[in-house]
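Practice problem: Peptidase A1 domain-containing protein
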Amino acid sequence: GFGWDLPTQQCWASMRLVSLACLPFDDAHEGLALGLNSKPMMSVHLLWIALAVSNPVDAAVVKVDISREFEGLSYGLTAKLKVDGQDVKAVVDTGARETFFIWRPWYETLVPGGCKTILYKCYDCKPDQCAQGPNYEVSFSDGSKVTLFEHTGKFAFDVGEVSIDFGLTKDYKSPSSKIDPHAGLGLRSSGKSTSGRKTLLDQLVSRKVISTDVFSLYLTTAEHATGKLILGGDDPSLYKAPMSFVKVVKTGFVTLTGFHIGGDSYPREFVLSDGYLDTGADIFGVPAKFLVTIAHSIATRGKKRFQMRREDGWYVITCTDRQYLPDLTFFMDGPDGSEVPLVITPDAYVEPKPKPGSKDCKLLVDEDPDNEWTIGHPALLG
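Answer key — structure tokens:
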């Protein structure tokens, strides 16, 4: 979700090589739109979230390498960054505002030498110790909480070095010992936040590095998916008109009108519910009452019927059976009352490969903890 509250127009274009359209923005209706391109130019999906005021064609953009990485229990969409000469990574998260990294002295007190092995690496103040700013706490949907302190450092972007305020982790709590600390790159709008802390995008705009808080991101559909996060605009070579658009309501939600699994001979399920796009999530979260129906339909409506197994709280299949699975299509409400389909292929809703020593892969569809529909970053794989 995005939670934007700006006195202008906004747009959100997403998923299949998209362009941009706008709806009026006011307190009662968030003018956002999601677009789907029916004529892809290459095998990638593009998510474009834009503040559509004036975005000059020749405006500067900042391009950041991103990739889908496995860490701990799940896959995350991570950005590769260099801060004060140190290589670090962070989860690309449209559901959070904060940008933060793992503080080396804190983490290596818990896990000696751990900064060499953790995916996100660690940040340390050099040559002196960090002067710890005010503490603040951030909570996540998996129940974890991180305590941060404020710091400032130089980010080495492709356009040059930029001084950016961010957080450093000094404490981390989670409901499971299997959930490890992570770093985050927050892309959610500041909205009505009263914290006084500016997001990364806000800071880039205020420093005139980019002209607007438009951002876009795309991934290839390879097993080790890679792509770019583009701050301040997009790459016109990645999409082609025409587009279909989906309106966004409330605080960054789309309206989900139904879903369909399998060929045309199978019935469509009708729903009327809020849907939430969150690149920080690695699954498709569904309300509890739909989970069994969706899992059973996936197992029985493809090219081959098979038994879906439940293990350690997840539905699992033999990885090689993914070739027989059907597409999962979500339908969303368009600005003109029409419906826009979003097709999710098996390569997106099944984890890419088994764990070492196993032949099973998890179904990346699970019960949503808030009993909502959550569309995670695998939707970008399409």
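Discussion: Confidence is low (pLDDT under 50) at residues 1-45, 50-58. Students who identified this feature from the tokens alone can consider the problem solved.
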